[in-house]
Amino acid sequence: MAAPGQGFVAELKNAVTPRAALLVIGVLLLQLGFITSYIGALHKPAPQHLSIAVVAPPQVAPKLVGALESVPNEAVRAKTAPDAETATAQIKDQKLYAALVVDPNGTEDTLLVGGARGPSAAKAAESITTGIDQSQGRTVKVQDVVPLAKGDTNGLSSFYLVIGWCVGGYLVASILGISTGSKPANANRLLIRLGALALYSVAAGLGGTVIAGPVLDALPGSILALTAVGTLVVFSVGAFTMALQCLFGIIGIGLAVLVFVVLGNPSAGGVYPAPMMPPFWRAIGSAIPNGAGTSASKSIAYFGSTNLGMPILVLAIWAVVGVGIAFLAVLRGPRSEEREPAAVEA
């Protein structure tokens, strides 16, 4: 400690330790990363590999598929479908974003879209197909075969529900770490923390589902299924945050924010679905609990629980990896002063 009268510089050196300075620099980098990630992912949405099917007579279909494929920047991934019923089923199974059904007896075609998958993707498909049809003297009318619920006007309810679950997951893990030490004293203490996290996850999953569904009428779907997804989202995020704290102490909280907030939120497919995001965020979105949880909750709410396997697998892997790393870190032995104190026997 600096002696009285040593001057401001000496006081500064004692007031701001090298560790504190590094933590402040880390926060600054995290903040700048937050700004970069959100603006980078969301500032200029443009379609890429947007799946659109063409339902048209054999003499017309190849020309339309070629026109869609020729849209600049690989905006469209086009294919043919035998009929409107098949195309509708593929949209409901989340295999397509849209389908252009050509009327061979008139000049007005129909664009089938699944608005619940993402309004921005539906609008992009409408803009692209309208431009192509207008160049041929035709018009397009839009038919939404998977519309959003009345209480989910912008299609963001599932996204915000999952973000809330993720926030709860890393906050409860952070609080447990800050209150009793980043690393539990032994495996039994870790099991107790994980048990507390599991109970919290069930309560958070059920609470969030009830609020989004029956209370606010913002999201349809099975309460039991959405609760299960919510429980898994909260537990996977919390367990991985615990693992980061066991490895890196308080810095682990910052790393959790980096993964789940800076990278996970903008890439989750809530504001814009995957085909509307830049390549980096499109690539990582489905591999992070935020994106996996959003996909799973949308599937349950609007798409009859189709394509649930991969999102559930992603969440399960994060949970298992988090628990595994935490146990390995605890069994490895003492790490720092942030270790949870063991009980003193009488």
Structural account:
By secondary structure, the chain is α/β, with parallel strands linked by helices. The chain has 2 domains: 50-144, 3-Layer(aba) Sandwich (abc type-2 transporter like fold), CATH 3.40.1710.10; 157-331, no CATH class. The chain has helices at 8-15, 18-42, 61-69, 84-92, 119-134, 157-180, 187-215, 223-248, 251-263, 279-285, 289-302, 309-331; strands at residues 50-55, 76-80, 98-101, 108-113, 139-144. Strands 2-1-3-4-5 form a 5-stranded mixed β-sheet, sandwiched between helices. Helix 3 (61-69) links the parallel strand 1 (50-55) and strand 2 (76-80). Helix 2 (18-42) runs parallel beside helix 9, helix 8 (223-248) crosses helix 9 and helix 8 packs antiparallel against helix 11. The chain is elongated, with a radius of gyration of 25 Å. 43% of the residues are buried.
Uncertain stretches = none
How far apart the termini lie comes to 37 Å
Strand content: 5-15%
From the helix content, strand content and strand pairing, which structural class follows?
Answer: alpha/beta
Count of helical stretches: 12
Indicate the mean pLDDT: 91
Number of DSSP strand runs: 5
Summed up, the domain count is 2
What oligomeric state do these chains adopt? single chain
What topology, given as strand order, has the largest sheet? 2-1-3-4-5
Short description:
By secondary structure, the chain is of the alpha/beta class. The chain is 59% helix and 8% strand.
